[in-house]
Amino acid sequence: MTDDSNGRMLTPPASPSEPPQPPASTVASLGVIDAFTQGWGLLMADFAQLWLIGFLFMLLTFAVGLLGGIPCIGMVISLVAVLCFSPQLYAGLFYVTLRKVDGEAVQPGDLFEGFRSRFSQSLVAFLPVYGLGLVAGVVFFIIAFMGASGAAILSKDAGFSEGFVGFGVMGMVLCLYLLMIFVSLFFLFIPAAIWDRNDNDALLGPAKTSFWLVQRHFLTVLLFALLGIVIFSAAFLAGTLMLCVGIFLTYPAALMWITLSLSLLYRHWNRDDLPLAGH
Questions:
Q1: Residue 160: C-alpha distances to residues 75, 142, 152, 157, 169 (Å)
Q2: Is the pLDDT of residue 25 over 50?
Q3: 176 burial via Cβ count (<10 Å: 0-12, 13-18, 19+)
Q4: Do 92 and 100 form a contact (C-beta atoms < 8 A)?
Q5: Whole-number Å distance between alpha carbons of 266 and 252
Q6: At residue 232, does pLDDT exceed 90?
Q7: What is the pairing mode between strands 9-10 and 2-3?
Q8: Residue 13: pLDDT above 50?
Q9: Residue 43 and which of 17, 103, 163, 241 are 20 to 30 A apart at CA?
Q10: pLDDT band per the 50, 70, 90 thresholds, residue 15
Q11: 247-274: per-residue pLDDT in tens?
């Protein structure tokens, strides 16, 4: 401190090299309701643009689903789409919402940024997800095969045994389904983490980031997933009541709302707060 000519104490100015102090709220202070509230605000602030992006996402995924149903070649199309379409499209969706969360302008073409700048990274980053699906499929087949075999054997001795085994198989399948949902939550942030991974750890990097975030905030993520299911169900019901055509309005809006809210959680929980790559 120094004195001026009147004898008053002067406070020295802050050094320009000192970083600005963060706000009083911590990075992890954002809750589920806050995320959905802020996500809704972001959606309403640029509804037409974001709805159009969600609508394009819906049309593209629907078209790929139809192509997958073509006899003979449908399985090949589905396999190609799983590796070279869906990961990149989901990455592009989060590219859009992360930019919006960061206060940047977005346009429909940004949905395809995953194909332009993160094609191989998206493909590789989603391999753990596909591995989980493959394991679940094998386990489901084993359960179904054992259930059918057990029912056939026991039905020779007692007529009620076949139905008993059937209920047992249904119970095991339900448990497997719930377990898959539980485990898949840990991969929820992979499409977002793809944009923050600039190193060579493309295979496990996004998955590790997602796992780290979810295991630290698991109950919040679980609550978010439950509310997301409620929102999607409400959007589907509202669209159906509008002669089904309303789904083209409600589904894209619900999709963008949920993805924006999830991106807000990701940005608040990821303390590194790395800038988006590719722009």
A1: 38, 23, 12, 9, 15
A2: no
A3: middle
A4: no
A5: 21
A6: yes
A7: antiparallel
A8: no
A9: 241
A10: very low
A11: 899 999 999 999 999 999 999 987 544 4
- Which 3-state string (H, E, C) describes the chain? CEECCCCCEECCCCCCCCCCCCCCCCHHHCCHHHHHHHHHHHHHHCHHHHHHHHHHHHHHHHHHHHHHCCCCCHHHHHHHHHHHCHHHHHHHHHHHHHHHHCCCCCCHHHHHHHHHHCHHHHHHHCHHHHHHHHHHHHHHHHHHHHHHHHHHHHCCCCHHHHHHHHHHHHHHHHHHHHHHHHHHHHHCCHHHHHHHCCCCCCCCHHHHHHHHHHHHCHHHHHHHHHHHHHHHHHHHHHHHHCCCCCHHHHHHHHHHHHHHHHHHHHHHHCCCCCCCCCC
Query: Rounded to whole angstroms, what are the CA distances from 92 to 63, 71, 222?
Result: 17, 30, 24
Segment 95-133, tens digit of pLDDT: 999 999 999 999 999 999 999 999 988 998 898 888 887
Q: Single out the residue of 259, 256, 258 nearest to residue 47, CA to CA.
A: 256
Token duo for residue 238: 């509202």
Question: Per-domain residue ranges for the chain?
Answer: 31-261
Asked if residue 88 has pLDDT above 60, the reply is yes
Q: Among candidates 125, 132, 105, 271, which has minimal Cα distance to 192?
A: 125
Instruction: Report pLDDT digits (tens) over 209-227.
Output: 899 999 999 999 999 999 9
Dist CA 109 CA 102 (whole Å):
18
**Quick one: which of 105, 179, 198, 103 has its CA closest to 139?**
179
φ, ψ for residue 198, nearest 5 deg: -110, 5
Calpha distance 275→277 (Å, rounded): 6
